[in-house]
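Provenance and format

Records in this collection were gathered into a single text stream. Each protein contributes a sequence line and a token line. The two records reproduced below are adjacent in the stream.
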Amino acid sequence: MTELLYQTDSYLREFTAVVTAVEGPAVVLDRTAFYPGGGGQPADTGTLAWADAVVRVVKVKKTGDDVWHTLDGALPPVGTTVTGQLDWEPRYRLMRTHTALHILCGLIFRDYGALVTGGNMSLDGARMDFELEQMSATFAAEVEEKVNAEVAAARPVQVRIVPREEAFQIPDLIRTKINLLPPAITQVRVVNIEGLDLQADGGTHVANTREVGRIRVVGHESKGRINKRLRIALDN
């Protein structure tokens, strides 16, 4: 079982861990700061170092309770203590982008009452789909102005892990059209943008909305009668 360090500290760039399993080109660590991907957020990359070796981590995947780190080179034996280091620039950009999507999601739910039907993100931008019947000609510009007002409001972003029973007492915790939380999950990670958005989420985020920077709505389109898509990108 791998302890997920990123769940409680998204800013952790370097960590030490012990190899608990080796299979093919991949290793399991007893703890990791590498995000394994999910919820539309890509997995992290970086390096593992031990003794005289420094090897690229090219793929990270969570399988059951274990996180597998695929290496492009030599493999450390089971029991080896390694130092992991994230490629920080792309990770931090994804943190900003993921938080931007939560700002967008919270604003659309608050002002238009629409649930999320899908989403994805990359280093270049992100998109989110909503259960909306109509989008006016000025909708995108209106949303862009509103999301940047929330960025400027410098709202704190807080993360906590609560028992499933407690989590589901929170009104509107699930902002997606379909509840994506499997019944087997007994502890729910909740991300709170103070005063704007509170929902279950497993990804990495910045600590304050002001870190996101300016959000641009770069595209909008209809994906069906009651499914509308907004595309966003960040400055810098």
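Adjacent record:
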Amino acid sequence: MTAIAKEAQNQTQFDTYNSQGGVVMGPYTSHIWRNDPRHMCFLFSRYKFCSKMFVGKKRVLEVGCGDSIGTPIVLQSVDSVHGIDFEPIVIKDAVKRNTYGDRCTYSIHDMTESPVKGQFDAAFALDVIEHIPFSLEEKFVSNIAGSLNQDGILILGTPNITAHQYASEGSQKGHINLKSGDTLREALQKEFANVFMFSMNDEVVHTGFSPMAHYLIGVGVGKIK
């Protein structure tokens, strides 16, 4: 028998929970929730920034989607998101957890090797470029640009090299290509006519002094080629 909530306005929430179960996170975000749950606030804020920048876009590409935990935030503003990752395990898991049908699709793809076919309106890569060897960085950004329409938008988010000393041991080992505000801008300027730089501390995005930011966001608009 279905339990009846004391406050009637909450009944739908309990009914949905009982029929569909709780939301399941993927392996990466489950680890974050267990070990550093406040980091989820920072992560979701980065997705919210992308969502606000992409309002009204039809086809958006998420590069290095991982668990795709924040993709639903972007889906609140755009028609569809296609997530790619070079790790088959996380793509298989994301496909299994997807509840958005054709609005959210996935494929295994290495962006250092080739663009994604489809000519997307916008793309974003959060916490990805710092894992790309510097020797492949130019190819990585070029291939994302090659996946976009001529007036496409690319958002790259990455930890600031000036904050590296405060990173966890695991992050310090995995972050092999950290950027500064200047070097992130330079990476985008090779492919985009207009580049806008933002700084981020915790959940707050601003245009303040980039060396004092923990996180950097670069926005490239309008392809050069």
